[in-house]
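Acriflavin resistance protein
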Amino acid sequence: KLTQMAMRSSRLTLFAAAMILIGGIVAFLGFPSQEEPSVTVRDTLVSVAYPGMPSEQVENLLARPIEEQLRELAGIKRIVTTVRPGSAIVQLTAYDDVQDLPALWQRVRAKAAEAGAQLPAGTLGPFVDDDFGRVSVASIAVTAPGFSMSEMRGPLRRMREQLYGLPGVEQVKLFGLQDERVYVSFDRARMT
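Tokens:
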């Protein structure tokens, strides 16, 4: 019966179809859209290192003091710690109802700094990394056979500066560059 009625009043049917089409187009254009929508990540990492320290000592001397300080914070739903020889990573997850994440991460930084004052001398960190909302658009691997790491350091840093000059580039990280070290050893026999 519906088809027969649509065939009998074809003008009304065409009008209704046109209105539905126009309404769909208006609704589609009204939907908010972004090329790269922002993603709220409710996690942060606190990392700490003491090269050469065994896992058990890392847990007792580094991870536990940091965890104890961070457990005092309101708004933290979960704390998961991963301990390896020489390093520990503490992952914090905020509750879904926490609205001001930057303020919470600032309190995490303050608590991590408090814990850092209690850590053994020579400890690297604690470092707080809450920058997970950025989307990595490009990962570039650079190799230079025949060149040493120290010879690559300068050109890579210049490349980073050039990348910062491009529109839309917010962050460039260099991974794998090692700090230059000079080791001096003395021959005791020759010194005497």
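Residues 43-129 form a domain with the Alpha-Beta Plaits fold (CATH 3.30.70.1430).
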